[in-house]
Amino acid sequence: MRRNSLIVAVIATIPAVAVATIPAVAVATIPAVAVATIPATARAENFTTAAEIKPILDATRANWIAVRAFDGKDLLYFTQLLSWRCGLSEIRYGLNGAAPDKVWPMEPCYDAEPQPNALKLEGAEIYLTAALGSIQTITISVTYDDGTEAHADFNRAAVMTP
Asked: What is the model's pTM?
């Protein structure tokens, strides 16, 4: 039992973000009784606030959107951003040099559910349809739920998917 207390004491001092990154193999070696006593503040979060999703969206900025030529049309996917929408208040976009003044609709965050960021796609779209070859550049602006913003510009070739 002394070993379990030591593990809990060490884990309790680690910031929540770091605990979330502990490899599953390492976590699997911690006795269940020790994990059960880890304070809630040291456990992984649901990624529903700006503070929780900013590091993820900063690290994945190059993948915020994707363009696919399919069935004679261009499809502009917003899937990556929509997957982290619970920490966002707005997604705006502009095409081919236009300012990002068009708002992309987001389905609600399901705060009461175990996976609040799940995409149920009930009346919500994950992509925009345009004429084949018409999307050449994309400007994205996201507003986080804390009011801060982030921006990115993309060229078609950099975000094309097969």
From this structure: 0.71
